[in-house]
Design goal:
It contains 20 helices and 5 strands. The chain has 574 residues and is mostly helical. It has one domain: MFS general substrate transporter like domains (Growth Hormone, Chain: A). The protein has a 3-stranded antiparallel sheet. A two-stranded antiparallel ribbon has the order 1-4. A hairpin with a 2-residue loop joins strand 2 (301-304) and strand 3 (307-309). The longest helix has 42 residues, at 526-567. Mean pLDDT is 74; it is low at 218-292 and 298-316.
Length: 574
């Protein structure tokens, strides 16, 4: 069906139909982020400790990252359709199995871990199919906007599902009529798991039928060179000659210069009047802009003792950050940008907050207030919503703004990644070092900030992977960047669970609590967030080194371009 559509429908219709379906898929693929709304009932139904529930949450988070190694090659070699079929099957097995296990109180922690792992890989498959297909259907200069919009809905999915859980499957009536429901788990959560399995599976099936990646004709390669792997991504118009590649693995697109498509590549043109121009002048719109000075020393390139390539004003504005290099997965291993990117992803903190917001809410409420258990349900839903809304806005704004900045101001998108990682420190420090415990208002601020910064880094990850490493092996390269990050949830949640359980053991016997394994007071969470703050400092350093590496890469690309101009007969000054 999808192949038939690609031959009978205009590319524009395919492009936007696939994008809309991608939005729907993304809105459902982030369902794992609503785990906090399930955690209390799962703990009650199966008698789990905080360490158990954190381990279960870690499995889902880790599967989303490790899953790239499974679904990435499926997408690269079999396409979006088979990737979505994989998502459909695994979702039905994962959430459907959890529904049966919860309803029958069947299996233990190990069985649920397997099922939740399947749901996590399914989420990755939906995420990758929607993201990679839409990004391939739009120009590279719009990568941030496309990924930002799609991932905004990925972040918003936690809000959607938490609202479904809070308003349709809250179980408040059960808690009011039967206080024991809080200790045994509600039937509402059982119905919610069934809802997840049916709705998510249905949307994945529809997307597998109608989502299509536009097939582009591959231009002929330059004689004497290998065909560029990304040639299919170059827009070839009648009467327009695409500029040749800088190297065998580097592709230029018409949008590289300020993101504007022009009828002919100006930097490829040369005239005798070039030497008469001020080679240091920039276009009027580019005067005094941030980031431009970072590349000034690469504007003139010495290729010999008495020969220097001279650039015109327009040539000096060539944008190296819109050059896409198609790298095979094994090439990433010798790239400094790859390793700085990986370390920043691996060390990013915040998982323990997102997955344990329910236990944090219980810890800060008044234990002597009889309405606290019921109030905790609504407050958990509210904070999950704040995390999700922040996540949505962070993804959307970081994508749109980074596209605008990279196209107009010639600044690497990685600068936004660095700023986002630095901002994550704020909520971690608030949680770890508040002397008298955090207030509800402070908790709201932390929820929104962690959501926004996580959203920003998530959207930037998608577009930066394409910017840095290309799109031919996009799925596999995503997996290589993210796979080690699968250890992050395990470590972060294990630290949180260990100190939480220790606080439970040391809690005075006269303080009431909601149930076995529940903790009250700042000792439940402050130590774990102090550790998270220290780790996040290292993460910020890695993100800073990534920005530095991209500046060096930009200078290298400018030098390569200058050398190529000289070889084609561009004017030179003795």
């Amino acid at each position: 069906m999808a192949k038939w559509l690609s031959f009978t429908t205009s590319p524009r219709v395919i492009q936007w139909t696939s994008f809309v379906l991608g939005v729907l898929v993304m809105a459902l693929s982030g369902s794992l982020f609503s785990f906090a709304s399930l955690a209390t009932d799962l703990k009650a139904r199966f008698g789990f400790s905080s360490s158990d529930i954190n381990l279960l949450a870690s499995i889902g988070d880790t599967a989303m990252y490790v899953g790239f190694l499974i679904v990435g090659p499926i997408y690269d070699h079999r396409g979006e359709r088979w990737t979505l079929i994989t998502a459909t099957v695994l979702t039905l097995l994962g959430y459907g199995g959890m529904y049966i296990a919860y309803a029958k109180t069947f299996g233990g922690l190990g069985f649920l871990m397997v099922l939740y792992c399947l749901a996590g890989v399914a989420s990755t498959a939906g995420y990758l199919a929607a993201l990679a297909t839409s990004m391939a259907n739009f120009p590279v200069s719009q990568s941030g906007t496309v990924s930002g919009i799609l991932l905004a809905f990925f972040g918003l999915s936690a809000t959607l599902f938490s609202q479904f859980k809070t308003h349709l499957f809250s179980g408040k009536d059960e808690l009011g009529q039967n206080p024991e429901a809080a200790r045994k788990g509600t039937v509402a959560t059982q119905n919610y798991l069934l809802f997840l399995a049916i709705v998510t599976t249905a949307i994945y099936v529809i997307a597998a039928i109608f989502m299509v990646k536009i097939k582009r004709d591959t231009p002929k390669h330059v004689e004497g060179t290998e065909e560029s792997p990304s040639a299919s991504s170059i827009e070839v118009k009648e009467g327009v000659t695409s500029p040749p590649a800088l190297s065998r693995s580097t592709t230029f697109t018409p949008s590289m210069r300020n993101g504007i498509t022009r009828s002919s590549p100006e930097w490829a043109q040369s005239s005798s009047s070039t030497l008469d121009r001020d080679t240091t002048e920039k276009p009027p719109s580019a005067r005094g802009i941030p980031g431009d000075g970072l590349l000034d020393d690469a504007a003139a390139v010495t290729t010999g003792p008495n020969t220097t390539v001279m650039h015109t004003a327009k040539e000096a504005w060539f944008n190296p950050y819109l050059v896409r290099e198609e790298m095979r997965p094994k090439q990433l291993l010798v790239e400094s940008s790859f390793w700085f990117f990986v370390f920043a992803q691996v060390l990013q903190q915040g998982f323990s907050y997102i997955n344990n917001i329910d236990s944090i809410v219980h810890a800060i409420l008044d234990p002597f207030n009889p309405s606290s258990p019921a109030r905790a349900v609504s407050l958990t839903g509210l904070n999950v919503t704040l995390i999700s809304i922040g996540n949505c806005l962070g993804r959307l704004m970081s994508g749109i703004i980074s596209d605008w900045v990279i196209n107009r101001y010639r600044v690497s998108r990685s600068v936004f990644f660095f700023v986002s990682e630095a901002l994550i420190l704020i909520p971690l420090l608030i949680m770890g070092f508040s002397q008298n415990g955090i207030t509800l208002a402070g908790l709201y601020v932390c929820s929104w900030l962690i959501g926004a910064t996580y959203g920003a880094t998530g959207a930037l990850f998608a577009s930066m992977t394409r910017d840095f490493f290309g799109e031919r092996y996009y799925g596999t390269n995503c997996g290589m960047v993210m796979v080690l990050n699968g250890a992050n949830p395990f470590i972060a949640n294990a630290i949180y669970g260990t100190f939480y359980d220790r606080a439970v053991e040391n809690m005075p016997a006269d303080i009431p609590h909601d149930g076995p394994g529940m903790c009250v007071g700042t000792a439940c969470y402050d130590t774990s967030f102090r550790i998270a703050s220290l780790v996040q400092l290292v993460c910020v350093l890695s993100a800073g080194l990534l920005f530095w590496a991209r500046i060096r890469k930009g200078k290298k690309i400018l030098r390569q371009k200058a050398e190529e101009e000289q070889q084609r007969g561009a004017p030179v000054a003795a």
